[in-house]
Design goal:
69 helices; 61% helix; two-stranded antiparallel sheet; 1481 residues; mainly alpha
Length: 1481
């Protein structure tokens, strides 16, 4: 050889290159040539020849600078593609070809070709490099495709090893691709970039360049498609269906991870949007890169869709691919291109769920695709078609259904699917359920159909459309088919499908439609088909549980089924919620349930689960023994989710509610179906022994009844108007069956009693059957059955049955309600029988204390007492036939009442409701009993017969006092004239009776006039009373006397008749002597001794009954003894003498303010201060200690009676010890406020009778009043507690000073000049302090902090006004300033005045104006003599502030006078105008 100009450009290399060019051309255009080459096993030789060093150099024969090996590579690619498309025999030959090529180092050679530089800027030289890379890409496509389709993992393993060979070295040497997969992706990216430039015309290229570039794009797409997991050979998929289930399962982890990465990168490459237009993949699919690129790009997109993730699906969807795919789908269907159709369908399936509304034409494309899919579903099966054709069409329909399922996950497509595809889906399901359509074993297809519809029907309008299309009927029939079919369900070539999962989807679809009221109209629920389907599903769960083969959906399916069942029940209810008990709907409902006995028994088993399927043995030795309940009903309804179901807490409650409603419907019908219903319910297992069946049925009835009457929520929906009727209907059937089964038990031969046996007795005790029957007796319709069953149960001698009657609150209440039972005619039971039975039971319970314990435990004492009391009165001839004044009550019910109300150590204790109930029913009887006792004692006393029994221990007296402690009970007694009975008891020193009188007279003390109640109170101070037990107890005596005295004082102060009656009473002297004895105890010891010695030498005057001194006054009160009925009449005093005078006197003389201690608490201990001084009593050697309460009450009594009893005031003002006691109280700094107030009030009352010679002289009175006025208000000065109507004002903190001022006004005319001067100064200072305290108060925490201030201001200005007329010299600047301040205070808008004091303050303002007018206008010479000037008033400053606020100056006097002259009352306006004139003069 001649040299060719290069070491490598040898003849051999030229011959090889030429041969490669020829072979490449032949294999590209001749299939025969390819087949010949395939038969010679030339593939390894071609690879080895092309991999020679001289063959990789640029060609000198070609004008495109392609490597010399291009022809050989193209030939190898054609041969390998042919091998892939036409494998000879088995797939193992493909694996052999793969391994042969890998063994000759093809991967390294291809990596070199792919990474060879391409001169893209040269139009001539770039095409050769592109051809070499295209050939390398086609070989890569074949290598990866064959490795994927081979059955052995060895091929993929060898391929991946070859890919990774040399990768670490490449990572160190270069930044380019590290392996062949990255190299192919790089080629794809580069070629697409240049191809896009060519398409948009941004590069000037030749046709040769364009052809090479487009071929490279196609080859790169094919190679990347194979690397992404596509198993289909290029050009070999026509006439087949693309299905993801056909993809080969690959276990090579390296390839799987690389495949995921390739899918991610390839997706980014093909959907990446360029600067000058949209993404490239849609352009490739529409042929923008050539016709060959369409199939390759579709193949790659399908591989990415199958093997990529959701992110790649979303990118594909957003790339615009669905627009051409939609067109491809339509064209493929019309031309019968199965692969293109199925591939496009798969892309729609994977990408459609990620289309968003408003993203270009994608939404419309998807809608168009849905229309194509719908057309496919509507294509009928040609009966004349071959089996293979039918199978193919069924498979295509299955893929369409799966595509619609996938699209249904996109909520924006629901309306389109509903309007276009829903009827077709329904038709598809209907064809499957009827067997008219072929699904060729692909049961997963209608699973997908159900899931698709399940998503769509969530929209109400779609649910209506689905129902109108007949979906409910189709799904119902499908469920029937699924339940009845014994063959397992499977996908084509896939695993078995869980039939329960399909059932769950079907039930969910039904539930969605039935929950929609509009859709339910089209669901054909009236024929019972859907109900039968759901019941069949539930039965299938029972059978699956029996063979221990529940599916994965077994936990959710019961929940969904119960939802549907409760929705079906809604069609049997009226708008108000009541059941339509009669009619075809109810009949069909019961007939359908009877046809599914297994489901009914499941409901019963579920209800019986509440027992825990065991009964605690009542007579077990260890107390923990249990008896199992035979499991005759079978498997219950269970759900592991424990989610709420149709408003109920869980599936169990929903099941119980459904059973209850079904029983209601069956109870309302008289038909063979209803009879069969009850036979199924009450016969758990036909094959079980009869006694076991009876035991389980009785347990079921007792459990059902217990839940019905225990407020179990599923059985007690109070919102339904007929709930009570429904419970009665069910209870009737249950009681009837329970009584029948109990009556069928054997009896003892001797006693004749039923032999219940241990299980029945234990069951009745645990389920509280007696209490349930007792509660049922309240229903007149259930009374005969309930009472008969109860009597049968209680006939057992077992003692544990009786306590069950009060086991719960409802049954305990029923006991007392049945005591007053009134049975209507025709009910077959006598009320007397029921009452007698209940009375016996109550007596047994009362004897052992269980009745009282139950009433306390359940909080029903009031109801129990009401029932017993009503029963006692209702049948007095039977219950109270003996003398009721005896100390014990022989009647059982009355004894129950007494026992119920009596507590150890406390006596009878009642609540307000209980007291009112007893007072209404037994009040009159009790009052008669009490009065009869006192009349009986009076008769015995009259004949000097001694009575040894303590009357206060009698139950009727104790009951009377207990009733009277409550306002409601006391009102009832008052209406019955019971005050007389209370007064008789109070006269015995009974505190409870006294408290009752005190409460009853609150606001109306004249009630004490009824029956001469006041006489009984005054009798407490007689000599006979001092011998009684209560008098010997100092604490109790103080309480008794204080309450009695306050009541008498209240009566005397508020009523002229009352005052006259008290004053005329024979017991008044003893009352006065007692009160004086109490007051004298406050006298100093020295004075007491002196007075005692004086009394020994000369006995003081004694006040007789008629007001004169009479030592022989008769203290006995001979009250005539009348019969009981006359004694119950109200008694009033009828005194004809001086009634009118007394009434006038009551109107003219109003009691002065005073205070006392509150006795509302009654039982609280008396407050005894350290200043309490023991008094010298009339009994030598004994000393009495009187509480402050008694002292206040004594003083109040004297205040009330002093002016009505002749000679009493003279006796008091001459009593040295009394005066000394008053002096001690007034001057003491330790006495409580109420005592001082009462003392000053009494002294004020006596002031008009004092003289200078009396022990209580004028000067001493003035001294008392001055002492009081000089002291600031003591804490609690007004905190007394008198009864309503007395002069004590507990909320008046100024009453002490007011009383002192009232007394000082009485003494005004008898004061000496010195006393008048001193008094004027004291009053002036007190007035100034009063105004200061009102204008700048220290605290206003109490709402009545300033109550009474107006009356005090009025009395002080009245005193000063009288003083101004005679002693103007006693007025000074401070007094004038106070007068001006009063005017300013009243006029200032921010002043705080109590509502009750406004009139007094207005009067005080008027008198202040009079005083200033008198001082400055009446006698102009007076101001000059006294030194008073008008400026003293005009310059008066008054500061006003609220607690915690800074003080401010009030309105000045001139402004105040101007305001009064304009808006004041008549006299005030005149006086203010005159003062203004004087001031401005």
């Amino acid at each position: 050889g001649e040299s060719l100009g290069s070491d490598r450009d040898t003849p051999v290399s030229r011959i090889r290159e030429s041969s490669g060019i020829i072979l490449g051309a032949m294999s590209a255009c001749s299939a025969d040539a390819v087949m010949d080459l395939h038969g010679t096993d030339v593939l390894p030789t071609l690879i080895v020849s092309s991999n020679d060093a001289c063959m990789t150099a640029p060609s000198t024969l070609r004008g495109d600078s392609a490597p010399r090996c291009v022809g050989l590579l193209e030939t190898a690619a054609s041969v390998m593609t042919f091998n892939w498309l036409h494998p000879s025999g088995a797939t193992s030959s493909l694996l052999d070809r793969l391994l042969e090529t890998l063994d000759v180092g093809i991967m390294a050679h291809l990596f070199q070709m792919l990474n060879a530089p391409v001169e893209w800027d040269s139009r001539d030289k770039s095409s050769g490099g592109m051809k070499a890379q295209a050939a390398a890409c086609r070989l890569c496509c074949c290598l990866f495709g064959i490795a994927i389709t081979s059955n052995s993992d060895i091929g993929m393993k060898r391929l991946m090893d070859a890919c990774d060979a040399g990768q670490p070295h490449r990572q160190r040497q270069s930044r380019g691709p590290r392996n062949i997969m990255e190299a192919v992706l790089t080629v794809l990216q580069t070629s697409l970039n240049h191809g896009h430039k060519m398409l948009v015309g941004s590069s000037n290229t030749t046709l040769h360049y364009q052809a090479a570039l487009l071929d490279l794009v196609e080859a790169a797409l094919l190679a990347v498609g194979s690397m992404s997991g596509s198993a289909g050979a290029p050009g070999g998929v026509d006439g087949v269906i693309s299905n993801e289930n056909d993809e080969i399962v690959i276990s090579n982890e390296r390839f799987l991870s690389r495949r995921a990465e390739v899918c991610r990168v390839a997706c980014d490459i093909v959907v990446r949007k360029s600067r000058s237009g949209p993404s490239l993949l849609p352009s490739m699919l529409v042929g923008g890169f050539g016709e060959g690129v369409v199939a390759a790009s579709l193949r790659l997109a399908l591989a990415i869709a199958h093997n990529g993730n959701k992110e790649q699906h979303s990118k594909l969807a957003s790339s615009g691919i669905l627009v051409p795919i939609s067109d491809l789908l339509r064209v493929a269907l019309s031309k019968g291109q199965l692969y293109n159709f199925s591939a496009a369908l798969a892309l729609v399936k994977f990408c459609g769920p990620y289309v968003t509304v408003g993203t270009g034409g994608e939404t419309q494309a998807i809608k168009n695709s849905i229309a194509v899919v719908t057309n496919m579903l509507n294509l009928p099966i040609n009966p004349a078609a071959s089996a293979e054709q039918k199978k193919t069409q069924g498979a295509l329909k299955a893929q369409c259904i799966k595509t619609l399922e996938s699209l249904s996950r996109n909520a924006s497509l629901w309306s389109t699917i509903s309007s276009d595809a829903l009827p077709s889906i329904v038709q598809y399901l209907n064809g499957i359920s009827l067997g008219t359509d072929s699904n060729e074993g692909n049961d997963e297809a209608y699973c997908s159909a159900l899931r698709a519809v399940r998503e769509i029907v969530q929209v109400p309008s779609n649910a209506v459309a689905a129902a109108q299309a007949g979906l409910a009927v189709s799904v119902g029939k499908l469920l029937q088919k699924l339940v009845l079919s014994d063959e397992p369900m499977s996908t084509s070539g896939g695993p078995e499908v869980d039939s329960q999962a399909i059932q769950l989807d079907a039930v969910a679809v039904l539930c969605s439609m039935l929950l929609n009221a509009e859709a339910r109209r089209y669901c054909s629920t009236a024929d019972g088909g859907i109900l039968a389907s759901i019941c069949s599903v539930m039965e299938s769960l029972r059978y699956a549980a029996e063979v221990d083969s529940p599916g994965a959906a077994a936990s959710s399916l019961p929940l969904m089924c119960m939802e549907v069942l409760h929705v079906l029940l809604e069609d049997l209810r009226s708008p108000d919620g009541s059941l339509k008990l009669q009619g075809p709907g109810a009949a069909v409902f019961i007939r359908t349930l009877v046809g599914r006995p297994g489901f009914l028994k499941m409901l019963c088993a579920t209800l019986l689960l509440k027992t825990g399927m065991q009964i605690r043995q009542h007579d077990g030795a260890d107390g923990d023994s249990v008896l199992p309940i035979p499991d005759l009903y079978g498997v219950p309804i269970k759900s592991s989710t424990n989610d709420p179901c149709r408003g109920f807490t869980n599936v169990g409650e929903a099941s119980d509610a459904f059973l209850f409603t079904s029983c209601v419907l069956a109870s309302s019908q008289e038909s063979s179906d209803a009879s069969d219903f009850w036979s199924i319910i009450f016969e758990p297992d036909v094959g079980a022994p009869q006694d076991e069946n009876a035991d389980v049925a009785m347990t079921f009835c007792a459990m059902f009844l217990s839940l019905v009457h225990s407020g179990y929520v599923p059985f007690n929906d109070e919102s339904k108007p007929t709930n009570e009727i429904e419970r009665s209907l069910v209870s009737y059937r249950l009681l009837e069956t329970l009584q029948r089964l109990l009556s069928g038990l054997p009896k003892h031969d001797i006693s004749g009693e039923y032999d219940f046996g241990s299980f029945i007795v234990s069951m009745l005790i645990q389920l509280n059957a007696p209490a349930v029957c007792l509660s049922s007796c309240k229903d007149q319709a259930l009374l005969p059955l309930a009472f008969g069953t109860l009597r049968t149960i209680m006939s057992t001698p077992d003692e544990e049955m009786v306590p069950l009657l009060i086991e719960n609150k409802q049954s305990a209440l029923s006991l007392f309600d049945l005591l007053n039972l009134q049975v209507s005619d025709g009910h077959g039971v006598e009320a007397s029988d029921v009452q007698s039975f209940i009375a016996d039971a109550l007596e047994k319970l009362s004897k052992n204390g269980m009745l009282k314990a139950a009433t306390i435990r359940f909080g029903i004492r009031s109801q129990a007492i009401s029932g017993l009391a009503a029963a006692c009165i209702r049948d007095q001839s039977h219950i109270i036939g003996e003398d009721l004044t005896s100390s014990s009550l022989s009647s059982g019910l009355m004894q129950c009442l007494v026992d119920l109300c009596t507590y150890e150590g406390e006596g009878i204790v009642l609540t307000s409701i209980e007291a009112q109930a007893i007072a209404k029913s037994l009040g009159k009887k009790i009052c008669h009993m009490v009065i009869s006792r006192f009349l009986e004692r009076a008769k015995l006393t009259q004949y000097d017969i001694e009575q040894h029994d303590d009357m206060l221990e009698a139950p009727d007296i104790a009951m009377l006092c207990a009733i009277a402690q409550h306002e409601n009970g006391l009102k009832e007694l008052r209406t019955l004239g019971g005050f007389h009975a209370l007064a008789l008891v109070a006269g015995e020193g009974e505190l409870m009776a006294l408290h009752a009188l005190e409460a009853g007279c609150a606001g109306n003390p004249e009630l004490l006039m009824e029956g001469e109640t006041y006489v009984s109170l005054m009798a407490l101070f007689s000599e006979e009373s001092q011998q009684k037990e209560w008098f010997q107890d100092g604490t109790k005596r103080n309480k008794v006397e204080s309450i009695a005295l306050l009541l008498l004082a209240s009566l005397a102060k508020t009523s002229g008749k009352g005052r006259k009656a008290v004053a005329a009473a024979k017991a008044l002297p003893q009352c006065i002597e007692r009160t004086l004895a109490v007051v004298r105890t406050r006298a100093p010891e020295v004075v007491a001794e002196i007075q005692s010695a004086t009394n020994d030498a000369d006995e003081g005057p004694t006040i007789s009954d008629d007001g004169n001194d009479d030592d022989n006054a008769d203290d006995k009160d001979d009250t005539p003894v009348d019969d009981v009925e006359n004694s119950m009449d109200k008694i009033s005093l009828d005194n004809n003498a001086d009634d009118d005078d007394d009434d006038n006197e009551s109107e003219e003389r109003k009691p002065a303010p005073s205070t006392g201690l509150n006795q509302a608490g009654g039982d609280s201990e008396p407050t005894t201060t350290s200043s309490t001084i023991p008094a010298v009593t009339s009994s030598p050697g004994t000393k009495e200690v009187f509480s402050d309460d008694v002292l206040v009450a004594s003083l109040q009594f004297l205040v009330a009676i002093v002016q009505s009893r002749a000679g009493l005031h003279d006796s008091l003002i001459q009593d040295g010890r009394f005066v000394a006691a008053c002096d001690e109280i007034v001057k003491s700094k330790t006495e409580s406020g109420p005592i001082t107030v009462a003392t000053i009030e009494l002294v004020s009352t006596l002031a008009e009778f004092v003289t200078d010679d009396s022990m209580l002289s004028t000067s001493r009175c003035v001294e008392f009043f001055g002492e009081v006025l000089q002291e600031d208000i003591r804490p609690g000065a007004g905190a007394g507690a008198g009864t309503d109507g007395d002069a004590v004002k507990p909320d008046d903190p100024f009453c002490l000073h007011t009383s002192a001022m009232l007394g000082m006004q009485v003494l005004f005319g008898t004061m000496s000049p010195a006393e008048m001067k001193s008094s004027a100064s004291i009053v002036s200072r007190r007035l100034a302090k009063l105004i200061r305290g009102q204008s700048i108060p220290k605290s206003t925490a109490s709402p009545s902090w300033n109550k009474g201030s107006g009356q005090l201001a009025f009395t002080m200005t009245s005193f000063l006004l009288r003083l101004a007329g005679s002693r103007t010299d006693l007025f000074d600047k401070s007094t004038v300033n106070s007068m001006a301040n009063i005017v300013q205070w009243r006029v200032d808008p921010k002043s705080s005045i109590h509502a009750e004091d406004q009139a007094h303050w207005d009067a005080a303002v008027t008198q202040s104006l009079q005083i200033m007018d008198f001082l400055f206008n009446a006698n102009r010479s007076i101001p000059s003599k006294s030194g008073l000037r008008v400026e003293f008033a005009t310059k008066a400053v008054l500061m006003i502030a609220k607690p915690g606020k800074a003080p401010r100056q009030s309105v000045n006097l001139l402004s105040a006078l101007e305001y009064i002259s304009a808006k004041g009352e008549s006299i005030s306006r005149v006086l203010a105008a005159a003062l203004l004139t004087r001031i401005r003069a």
